[in-house]
Amino acid sequence: MSQVKLFGYTDRISAKPGERIDVHVNADGTDTAEAQLVRLVHGDAHPSGPGYIEEEVACEANGPWKVWKQYTQVGSFLRVADPHQRLAPDGSFTVFTYLWSTLPMVGLRQSLVGRWDIRSNKGFGFGINRKGFLEFWVGDGSDVDYVAAEAPLIARIWYFVAVSYDARTGRAEIFQEPVVNRYNSLLGKVVPMDYRSHVAETLRFRPRHDPQTPFLIAGAQDWHEARGHFVGQCFCGKLDRPGLYGRALSREEMAALQAGQRPADGLLAFWDTTAGYTERGIGDTVIDTGPHGLDAVGYNRPVRAQTGYNWNGRNDCFRLAPQEYGGVEFHVDTMIDSNWSVTRTLTLPDGLKSGAYAIRLRAGPGRGLAEEYVVFFVRAKVPKAPVAFLVPTGSYLAYANEHLSFDAQIIQPMTGQPPIVDEIDIEMYKNPDFGLSTYDSYEDGAGVCFSSFRRPILNMRPKYRMSSMGTTWQFPADLSVIAWLDQSGFDYEVLTEQDVHQEGLAALKPYRCVLSGTHPEYISERVLDATEDFIAEGGRFIYMGGNGYYWNVAYRDDEPWIMEVRKLDSGMRAWAARPGEHYLQTTGDKSGLWRNRGRPPQKTLGVGFIGEGFESGKPFRRMPDSYHRTVSWITEGIEGEIIGDFGLAQGGAAGLELDRYDLKLGTPPHAKIIASSGGHTDNYVLSVEEVLYAYPGMTGTQDYRIRADMVFFTAPNGGAVFSASSIAFGQALPVDGFKNSVAKLLTNVVGAFAKNGPVPGEAWISDEKQWR
Amino acid sequence: MGEVWKNPLTPWRGDAEPAEAASDPWRDPGEVWRAKRASSVPMHKVGRLRYFWKAQGHGERTWNRLRYWPTRRRVLDIRGEYNPKILRREKTILDRRPIYWALSFLAILLAPLIVPGDLQSTLISAGTVFLIYAAINLCWTLIIGTAGIFSLATMAVVGAAAYGAAAMSVFYGWPWWTLPFVGAGIGLVFGVVIALPATRLDGFYYALLTLGLNELCRVYVVQSRTFGSATGGLYGADSFIPAGLSPFGELATGYYAAFALMLVALALFRFVHGKRLGRILRMAPEKREAFAQAVGINYRAARIQVFILSSAALGLIGGFYASYFRGASPSLFSFDAVLLGLAMLVIGGIGRSEGAVAGTFIVILIDKVFLSLGPIRLIVIGLIMLGVVLFLKNGLFGIKQQFRAWRNKKKSENRSSRAEKGGEMLPEEATETEDKDLIYARRFDKMQRDYLKTIVSERLIEEHQRNPLGQHSEPLERLLMYFRRQPQVDKYAITVIEPFKAYRIVALSGHRGVAPRLVEEKTYPTEAEAYHAVFLRRVQDLLEY
């Protein structure tokens, strides 16, 4: 019996009581699992806190579930539905595409364009062979014959490649010519390399087509006895404007194709990767402008809006020059949607309290990998409570299944400690099926720009600790805030960013006071707008974290469970988008930091990111401004000036990532600093968007800017904002049974914010006595 | 001696870090750079001129590739590449054997036309014998080399077939063109009979058995009246050499017929060794049979198939032999014929066609051409064989591979004896490094380590133990920064056995998808202790490296 492993995900992350949700579960080593609906209260088992707390909830779905092994298609490709077999020419044909490959020498066959069945050796394929050469191959069901180019492909160089096959004579001719300009490729014209290759050879037999084999771009069909058909031989790199002719083109004609002249005579398909672009983004369908209109549909979301073979550096967005943005980027190790079959559809009990829930699945030993929490959030059917916790689902996506401890050399210098990995981390690392986070890079070095909820997210579960930092992070850290709310006596509900993204301000409007998560870093424009409008229209917002409202991200309306981000220009970033690829394909907006688009977080929250460090936490100390009667109620009942010299995250309420007050970036002029942290170690370094010139000493012990500022300001129509400005703030709440200075402070703020009527201290607006 | 480091965070209250730490006097990290002005190991000039011609690539021109009809094989296996030194396109012929074969065939074809008149008879008949024996040895090397069956019954099969064919012709008057087929039939039966014990016996015992069989055949024909015990052989069979030809015509007909025979044997070798059967058997060389079996290869069946096929072919050669020599003689079964054949195989290299042919050529040349040397010939052959067995791993045609392996061994010996451990690259290593940035990274790393070794002290270790995380003294911070910046391969990390109760040290793989490996069994009860244990390992690695 193999080791028992359970993994699952739901079809949506946010649901209301009484609604049905689908749970998808994969099971290894068992065919039944014990399911239990649980409400998650506290997720950090740190000995200084209350420990792990969950609450079992009655549900029709509780009890044993039948579970089974599920398979995941990894790798992105385009599939062409071709019901009339038009792309299976019996006679001569010509295949062509522009090509920019990133891993030609990886030692695995990569298919570019073709109708190839790996198992039966039927059809034809045009791709890169294991030695890194362009190759065209045909199969008759038993043998394979092939012709390869003379020179190996060089990585990150744009080529035009084609092969013409004459069925009468059996002659196949490979056409490989570079299309390098001053901008588009890795190497420029100073390199004395001859990229061209023209090889002709007479093949022994004609391809035999299997009508069952799909026509694929960037992949080929394979088969496994347990799994059935899947796609293998995936490709890493970009393709631009591939097509197919139903006759053998001469070399001159192929040269004309390279130059963009496509005669209609014999054209079977031409996938114009630049067609169908809109001002508001690009979908997954690549349009065939040929006679049959055989559109290609992306699987695992091939990256679009990428620079094409003819990008010349002048335009930086697909909206300006779609014809220069024909690049579609594929990766062998990308995974957007597990597409598992539904294990169980369950109806949420009607009277379910709003909160963080999970289907707890256990089998075998029932711990470690044999225990899974399939997490989702239940919002109120009709909002009633005055207080709401806004779950930062965008940031959960951004960090979903991050591999930093294993793959990122920079993580130990950054976090100042060796990582602590557990068996879940190792399982995630071993298994490409779980996909990557936007903190990872693909094997070819390109950054990951998509992340989705339709897959098991191993770090979005209670008890989980982020391996590189030795603390909880994102969801399990946010549970500390939920646990505090739960015991505080305040009537609260939860809702997710996804709800706010879809419904806008209306989702926030019913609440008087909204608390953010501990690290709401990835924010779509709609969420940012809704938050700003909520505050401006009289809502009270408590920003519970650090480094929030930082990246501009996008979701498509039809698939809101997938997020896109492109990291560029500045900001603490795991990768950098290539030149010309800075705009989100999802919306056509420029990605990167909100700050670089004129909306620094200071403008909305009063504070913005300043620095980070991960091996220590420090307390806040009250600032003189906090004694003013407009704000002194915030610190009421707290003895002394020190706030939060404790916490589950490195022993201090100010830690991990810190935000700072900055008038130059739009902190409201009347904002007051209630308390600031200080004494941060040299592991805390200034964030890069603050750096124009790098010079020594931009670290915690020498740069005064590296600190967290607790900031308060009032907003129009009775609104108000309190910003905690540190990720570790939330993790300080559970210490000493939620009876501590940080919890006290938050109680004061939430208490004041949740009440109808003006915030306290509003009347103390006169000039100070000058004779004291 | 000792100095004190003051923690800059002391004025801030509520810190976990100590206010100060005992420290050693400050050392300038630039010191090692100033001290190191030259390599401490001799640096040789590297770079070689190319003395031979190499085809250049041609991006513009279409390369029309040709194949051996009707196969998929290209005439030459050519790899196009970029010369890494200057990025010029080049074409390298990966396998030059087809060229050598073609030249050899041409030489064989033309040889009878250029032999001097007085030696014509000796040389052409020696050539014919060479070609027949080459054909025999090609089949034999399939048995010994490809199939790995140590059979010495080859000559017994050939002889039996020759006798059988001769008998058919002599007693029943069958025409010459039937004789190879008769021989092949006898070879097939013989093959099946002697293949049976091969499934049970192996190595030495099987060799003994087959040798005995050979001897049995010899004794039988020597004593049998029917097979000409009186005349010293069975003669009078029909020959393919038409009567009434000139002496040269007779010689040449025999010679070219033997050449054709060898070509048939070569084709057989190619089809068995180079195709599925041969590939299966190369997966299952001697002493690795268990592995082959584990991956689902029925190597026994494959071996027997090869054996029977080769035996039939040997029989065919026997029939040809009878037809060429107009009969058969007991010398076919003689022990020295077996040994000479073995010498041919061993000298050329077992398991390869060029080895079988070249080995045969050498032995026949000495044995049949240098007749004037007398019995010394055999001693010369013995000496060559001895030399080959003593000094070569796989005959004459294994020399290239053996030389390369030896050269690589010498290369790494030389490098390791010159290079400093963990030090900077030698010029010859540098030329082999694609990313020249690594060359500097090695230099920088060496300098860093040389400096850091000087600042490791008991006090530093104590300081870390007190406080693995948080602000550290300047030297400790430098040391930690170096450790943390190491590449991911084999970088230490910690794994959880039970949260907040038990931790262990692991090393990361640095390769996507490969789990970390456990470094030691010891468990540490707290994170802090695990952090310090990792630190101690890193310090130890630094000092040892």
Summarize the structure.
Helices cover 12% and strands 32% of the residues of chain A. Chain B has 545 residues and is mainly alpha-helical.
Protein model, in words:
Chain A: Residues 307-734 form the N,N-dimethylformamidase beta subunit-like C-terminal domain. The complex is a heterodimer of chains A (772) and B (545). Chain A is mostly beta strands. Chain A has two domains: 77-330, Jelly Rolls (Sandwich); 385-754, no CATH class. Chain A is 12% helix and 32% strand. In chain A, helix 7 (497-503) packs across helix 9 (525-536). Chain A is globular. With 545 residues, chain B is mostly helical. Chain B contains 19 helices and eleven strands. Chain B has helices at residues 31-35, 97-114, 120-146, 154-172, 179-198, 204-223, 247-273, 276-283, 289-294, 299-325, 335-348, 353-369, 376-391, 399-418, 427-431, 437-455, 458-466, 474-484, 527-544; strands spanning 3-6, 20-23, 55-56, 62-65, 77-82, 89-95, 234-235, 327-328, 492-498, 502-507, 517-518. The longest helix of chain B is centred in the N-terminal third of the chain and has 27 residues, at 120-146. Chain B starts with a strand and ends with a helix. Chains A and B meet through strand 15, helix 3, strand 29, helix 5 and strand 38 of A and strand 4, strand 5, helix 18, strand 9 and helix 19 of B.
